[in-house]
Design goal:
This protein is mainly alpha-helical. The protein is 51% helix and 0% strand.
């Protein structure tokens, strides 16, 4: 008799994957998440898909970005928003702050102690370590 191997997956997957995997001969153990679990897993999935997009080569970048967008849409909907809402916010931020076409890279900033700007950076030491 052939040995049966079991592998831990423990992640949110696309709705159609259990059926596809069963057609491949796999036994799949899935469950439906409650609202809180779903939001948490969507956030985790966003990080996973963003990391895959960040490391993608030129041939697979568009596919990985499509995965990121699918998660963004699901996360927006789970939070009561639509892709149109997200797009409207994107356009508003772009109008106020610009986009990324200019390729501007910020190496560091200096701020006077005691100012709101200094407080902003000091409150985020993991993101903005002092030099």
């Amino acid at each position: 008799m052939t040995e049966v191997l079991r592998f831990r997956v423990e992640k949110l997957i696309r709705d159609g994957l259990p059926q596809i995997m069963r057609r491949q001969g796999l036994q799949v153990f899935e469950r439906v998440l409650d609202d809180a679990e779903y939001l948490a897993e969507l956030r985790r999935k966003l990080v996973e898909e963003a990391a895959e997009a960040a490391s993608a080569d030129a041939d697979s970048l568009v596919e990985e970005l499509a995965d990121v967008l699918e998660v963004v849409i699901a996360l927006a909907q789970a939070g009561g928003a639509s892709l149109a809402d997200v797009e409207a916010k994107r356009l508003a931020k772009r109008a106020e702050r610009g986009g990324f076409e200019g390729r501007v890279y910020n190496a560091c900033v200096e701020a006077q102690a005691g100012t709101a700007a200094a407080a902003y950076y000091l409150a985020r030491p993991e993101q903005y370590p002092r030099l």
